[in-house]
Specification:
It is a single chain. By secondary structure, this protein is of the alpha/beta class. It is built from 8 helices and 7 strands. The protein binds S-adenosylmethionine (SAM). S-adenosylmethionine binds next to helix 3.
Length: about 220
C-alpha cells in the first residue's frame, strides 16, 4: 500500500512518526481534538470523514464518543494508517481507514454528513488547500458540515516555536484565520466562520465551521 505522490507526513518526516503521538499529547493536542469533537454536532446515524487522519486519534475519539456513526479516516501515509488501525482496534472502535489524498477523496459525491480535519490543512500548499476544500464540498451531503482545527499563522496571531520547527513557512503563511475563512468561502461553503481559538504549547490554533451549499459540486 503506497501513496502515488508526495505529501508532508504527520511529524514532517517518516523517521519521527513514532514520536508523533507522545509529542502531540504532551503539547496539548488532545484538548484541541476534544474541543473539535464537541463542536462537530455528532448524532447517531451520521457518516463522518476525517481527512488527514494521521495516526487515527480523532477518528477513534469520534467512534468512541458516538458509537452509532460510521467513521472513515483518510490519509496518504500508509505508515500512519497502520498505527491508526492498531489504535482503533486496541480501543475497540470500528473505524475504516482508507489510503488517499484530501483533493481526490475516493468516495462518491454527497457521501458524508460531516467532514473533520485536525492539524492537516497547514500540510498543504495554497493550491493544495483549494483543491482539498473543493473535494470536501463534493463529498459532503447538502447541508453537511466541515469542522476544522489548525494552526493560525503569523500576520494573524503569533505562532508557536514547535509549529515553526516542524513546518515550512510557505505553508503556514497561508494559515491565518481570515485566509482560511476566505478559502472556505471561495470553495463554495456557506457560513464559513472561525468558531473558536485556543493557545497550545505548539502554538495558537483556531476552529472553523462551514456548511456545504446546495449548489456546490452539483
Ligand atoms: C499533523 S498530521 C495530523 C494528523 C491527525 N489529524 C492529528 O490530528 O493528529 C497531518 C496529516 O495530514 C496528512 N496529509 C498530508 N498531505 C495530505 C493530503 N494531501 N491529503 C490528506 N492528508 C494529508 C499527513 O500524512 C498527516 O498524517
Amino acid at each position: 500500500m503506497t501513496a502515488e505522490r508526495a505529501y508532508v507526513p504527520a511529524a514532517g518526516h517518516d523517521r519521527w512518526l513514532s514520536l508523533y503521538d507522545p509529542l502531540t499529547r504532551l503539547l496539548g493536542a488532545q484538548a484541541a481534538l476534544r474541543e473539535l469533537l464537541s463542536r462537530t454536532e455528532l448524532r447517531p446515524g451520521l457518516r463522518i470523514l476525517d481527512i488527514g487522519c494521521g495516526t487515527g486519534t480523532l477518528a477513534t475519539m469520534v467512534k468512541l464518543q458516538q458509537p452509532q456513526v460510521d467513521v472513515v479516516g483518510l490519509d496518504p501515509d500508509p505508515k500512519a494508517l497502520e498505527r491508526a488501525k492498531r489504535k482503533a482496534e486496541h480501543a475497540g472502535a470500528a473505524v475504516d481507514f482508507v489510503l488517499g489524498f484530501a483533493d481526490a477523496i475516493p468516495f462518491p459525491d454527497a457521501s458524508f454528513d460531516r467532514v473533520m480535519s485536525s492539524f492537516m490543512l497547514h500540510h498543504l500548499t495554497l493550491d493544495g488547500k483549494r483543491a482539498a476544500l473543493a473535494d470536501v464540498a463534493r463529498v459532503l451531503k447538502p447541508g453537511g458540515t466541515l469542522h476544522v482545527v489548525d494552526f493560525v499563522s503569523a500576520g494573524d496571531r503569533p505562532r508557536g516555536v514547535f509549529a515553526r520547527m516542524l513546518h515550512a513557512d510557505d505553508h503556514l503563511t497561508d494559515s491565518g484565520a481570515g485566509r482560511t475563512v476566505a478559502l472556505l468561502e471561495r470553495a463554495g461553503f456557506t457560513g464559513a466562520t472561525e468558531v473558536g481559538a485556543r493557545r497550545t504549547l505548539f502554538g495558537p490554533v483556531s476552529f472553523y465551521r462551514a456548511a456545504r451549499a446546495d449548489a456546490v459540486g452539483r
